[in-house]
Amino acid sequence: MKKIIGLGLESSCDETAAGIVENGSTVLSNKIASQIDLHAEYFGVVPEIASRAHLEIVNPLIESALEESGLTFDDLDYVAATNRPGLIGSLMIGLQAAKTISYIKKIPLITVNHLEAHLYAPFLNSSAISFPYIGLLVSGGNTALYHMKGIGDMQLLGRTVDDAIGEAFDKVSKFMGLGYPGGPFVDSLAQKAVKKKKIFPKLMASKNEDYRFSYSGLKTAVINYVRSNPDYDMAEVAYSFQESAIEILIRRTFAAARDLGLTDIVVAGGVAANSRLRHLFADACRHEERVIIPPIDLCTDNAAMIAGLSYHYYCREEFDALDADVTAKIRG
Ligand code: KG4
Question: Looking at the domain assignment, is residue 322 inside a domain?
């Protein structure tokens, strides 16, 4: 089998990443430059700062990915970049770099949907998964459930009607005076809870049950509780918030798997790094259900997932022209 090598670039938010993948699965390099330090003082991503940081790091990062994999630009069969959804100025940096490589090296350019790429992550360095499956994406910008039918064929089942789950972790963390991004702080604080009492209610009433999510009510409940209980126990609040936030994910995801008769469930995105989420999803499996959560470096924003997914578009000869554009939001 001929080796097809692809370079992927990711710059949709606050991570610049360059990844090199062989035949859509073997990760040869997965370089990620995080901008967390630049945004921490604002407790959120500042778009202008993000674009500038992408611009500064993208070329050295590509060089470093090539070096790590022992390859040169001449070894690449295609170049891919995330072009949707994300911050416009940030997306443009990665896409422009990919266009330049495509033009100079005369190799196909492939643009990729960031959300589809996240849910492709379990195919990397593994042959344990195949279509169809249920895909749950949990990150700072997205909380959405999909029926993954094939490459380029994902059906949205439901998404958050307000905040994304990662956003709720970040805001709760900020309000409690913890650090940014909030997820890892809340995760480790919750592990110190002793009483583990239920402080916050189950999310969304069970009548009219569908596949949607909502996190702004829970976030407000935490804020109100903290305001009216000045001596509150931080670990207990972190624990109860986290339990409620994860419980709805499990309820919706397993309901979708049952309704569609699917057994494989993939959870991806930054929040999939949460230790309690990993435990509770594994625990919720009954009968033949199987939960697959990629390793943490492939869960969070990375470009191996971009290079890997676009291998399949390369094989189908679905290439993009040099005037390809970026899109902030996508439907479905
Ligand atoms: O997918 P991701 O790396 O990128 C964006 O969406 O930009 O996700 C980042 C999100 C942040 O909201 C962060 O707080 C959350 O993932 N996160 C976590 C954990 N680690 C990262 N949330 C809960 N528990 C964690 N251990």
Answer: no
| pLDDT exceeds cutoff 90 at 68 | yes
In angstroms, what is the span from residue 181 Cα to ligand 1's centroid? 7
Q: Which is the closest atom of ligand 1 to the Cα of 169?
A: 14
* 300 Cβ closer than 6 Å to some ligand 1 atom: yes
Closest residue to atom 5 of ligand 1, CA basis: 140
Are 140 and 282 contained in the same domain? yes
**pLDDT the model gives residue 208:** 62
Q: Are residues 275 and 309 in the same domain?
A: no
- How much is the pLDDT for 203? 72
Residue 141, ligand 1, Cβ within 6 A:
yes
38 C-alpha to center of ligand 1: Å? 16
Residue 14 has pLDDT above 90, yes or no: yes
* Ligand 1 neighbourhood includes 271 CB (under 6 angstroms): yes
**Is there a domain that residue 241 lies in?**
yes
pLDDT tens figures, 178-203: 999 999 999 999 999 999 999 997 77
Question: What residue's CA is closest to ligand 1, atom 14?
Answer: 183
Ligand 1: nearest atom to the Cα of 180? 14
Q: What is the 3-state secondary structure (H, E, C) of the chain?
A: CCCCEEEEEECCCCEEEEEEEECCCEEEEEEEEECHHHHHHHCCCCHHHHHHHHHHHHHHHHHHHHHHHCCCHHHCCEEEEEEECCCHHHHHHHHHHHHHHHHHHCCCEEEEEHHHHHHHHHHCCCCCCCCCEEEEEECCCCEEEEEEEECCEEEEEEEECCCCHHHHHHHHHHHCCCCCCHHHHHHHHHCCCCCCCCCCCCCCCCCCCCCCECCHHHHHHHHHHHHHCCCCCHHHHHHHHHHHHHHHHHHHHHHHHHHHCCCEEEEECHHHHCHHHHHHHHHHCCCCCEEECCCHHHHCCCCHHHHHHHHHHHHCCCCECCCCCCCCCCCC
Residue numbers of the domain that contains 25: 5-124+299-315
Whose C-alpha lies nearest to ligand 1, atom 16? Answer: 270
pLDDT digits (tens, 9 = 90+) for 106-128: 999 999 999 999 999 999 999 88
CATH number of the domain residue 82 falls in: 3.30.420.40
- Global confidence as pTM: 0.95
- 320, part of any domain: no
pLDDT of residue 87: 97
- Residues 254 and 289 reside in one and the same domain: yes
Which of 271, 274, 281 is the pocket-test mutation for ligand 1 (most atoms within 8 Å of CB)? 271
